[in-house]
Design goal:
The complex is a heterodimer of chains A (264) and B (493). Chain A has ten helices and ten strands. Chain A is of the alpha/beta class. In chain B, the strands form five sheets. Chain B has a seven-stranded mixed β-sheet, sandwiched between helices. A six-stranded mixed β-sheet of chain B has the order 9-8-7-10-11-19, sandwiched between helices. The chains are: A alpha/beta (264), B alpha/beta (493). The interface between A and B is large, with 37 and 42 residues.
Amino acid sequence: MSRLPVRKTYKLYLGGKFPRSESGRTYEIEGANVALASRKDVRDAVRAARGAFPGWAGATAYNRGQVLYRVAEMMEGRKAEFAELTGDPAEVDAAIDRWVWYAGWADKLAQVLGSSNPVAGPYFNFTVPEPTGIAGIVAPEEPPLAGLVSRLAPALVGGNVAVVLASEHRPLAAVTLAEVLATSDVPGGVVNLLTGRKRELAPVLAGHMDVNALDLAGADGDTAELERLAADNVKRVVRNGEGQSPWHAAAFLELKTVWHPIGV
Amino acid sequence: MAEVEKRQDRSPVPSAFEYAEAPESRDIVRLEERYGLFVAGDWVEPRSGEHAPSIAPRDEEPLAEVAYAGPEDVDLAVGAARDAFANGWSDLAPSERAKYLYRIARILQERSREFAVLESLDGGKPIRESRDVDLPLSAAHFFYYAGWADKLEYAFPNRRPRPVGVAGQIIPWNFPLLMLSWKIAPALAAGNTVVLKPAESTPLTALLFADVLRQAELPPGVVNIVTGDGRAGAELVKHPDVDKIAFTGSTEVGKEIMRAVSGTGKKLTLELGGKAANIIFDDAPLDQAVEGIINGIYFNQGHVCCAGSRLFVQESVYEEVLAKLKRRMGTLRVGDPLDKNTDVGAINSREQLERIKELVASGEEEGAEVYQPPCRLPEKGWWFPPTVFTNVAQSYRIAQEEIFGPVLSVLTFRTPDEAVEKANNTPYGLSAGVWTEKGSRILSMAQRLRAGVIWANTYNRFDPTSPFGGYKESGFGREGGLHGLAPYLELDE
């Protein structure tokens, strides 16, 4: 007699925990009942992200780099599961390598993006990049794993925290990635992942007054309304292209310039 | 030494010092009675048919009739900029582009007194500031960005920098020529063409700048200047052939612009309002700190987006700082912007004066204690005395809203943590000041304050090499420095 497999319940990832949607709703997709996040789940996720921000932004760049590298290590160990969910082992490899690539940027961004500025006076003046805060990320529908990682990693590496809306039609790889994050030394609340209807959730994220940046890569079609909502608190609207680039990380960063007199 | 003439009543009385009037002659400025729009290198009558006077804040004298551009005028200006972009400017050797900018910088230096006098006449700022700050910095901006024009591939290695196209630029009334320079210099250095919309209350130095462009022999249409009010700005923002919008002004209008460009893919930078914290620790050199407080809030009548309008004083030195501050306020000379002794000039417009008065009244109503040094204000013109509020709660409007006038709110704190928490408790994040002798504390505060510019043991310093811009609702994008070029370029990722 063959063994009956143990099925996984796909839940949200919020504040380092895996709760069901507070609404109690699910939707059936990819052969599973997946949590259908509510507007309140979005707000809770933003609150969890805000709580995690000082710690993650305040970690040393070296530490953040190691934590993100650890994500790649943990994914490598679950390659088979990811390959089954995505149906594309090459995508899984690409996603893992992308974490490795961005992990290496953690302690280099400031040297590439910052500057010291030769002002015409007796002042020392320098410019450093700093995280903007909470990044709201509407992940691409396809590819479900590499698409998400390509959006999330550049936001995290500079010290931002994230609230992510996973691929609506293929959310299982994203939830599995959340399980990896939960076991990879990424502090709870740094990444919060919601599954559900983008049409319902994206406007809540775009209009939320405590979200600082909005990545619209996965907002298919008309993004004008989301951009209008983003104006309510002058969000940084991020339109990064494909691939990997330190400029993708820069899109989630502020620049701070500090002046100090030189004297005796 | 000859007997100095007694000061007349229009200069208000400072507490202790006697000054002779030292007015800068306005003869150097020759104004037209009426200005058109500067489009494709020519002065054109506005199709809108609308003109309105630009008024001198110091005595409400109408200085000149200025055109108010309508939709058709904005369209013509954008068309001229597009033509100039397509037919020559974007193909010009970058080293030649640089030389035009160097020429502009030099002409601004040569004509700086004329520009300084006109800036003070039209905007009300003290001649000492327009002469020593606005003009040198404007020229320096062109000089700095001139040098970048043929070095862009070193600024952005492997990113194939190329111009965006037509830049629509909307500037405020507080530093009219300087904001023009912040906008035009990097735009041209990057190879773009420009349609600039000056503020309705301070268009005259921008119009005089058109004459600088003529002297520099800049090709027609590379810079077009359309004067007018907010309607002209709105037309520029929504014009389909404008590729990039740069705006400096209020957060409220910045949000409207963001909504207007949503879904269009236009590039956008916003430099918006502020409510900066200026934080004084008990170990700070207090006399220097008081100078920094004064400079932070009374520079340019407080019409400064990065003004240090919320003063946080550590409790242990509160009485001492306040006593020194009030004594120093008593020596500020409020009066004729053209007088070289003047520290605080005229309020830029009647509307702005009303807004300041309304917010000051709200402060008194909410329970704050107001102090103004004795000073006699001129009868004609728009004036507001240097003002400080004590006993201010963080919830008061004067501690929350940008007043954009010579009005300071004083609050206190005990610990660095408390200072950081209170300072960051605002939707704005443009700038902040920190005063302490302790080096490690300077760096820790600089790190924890959520603002784009941190002045430590100084305040209100600006330089073309130094990026300037906000966090949060103070906007995004940077002006100045290498970082100030990026918004005007298409770059490979």
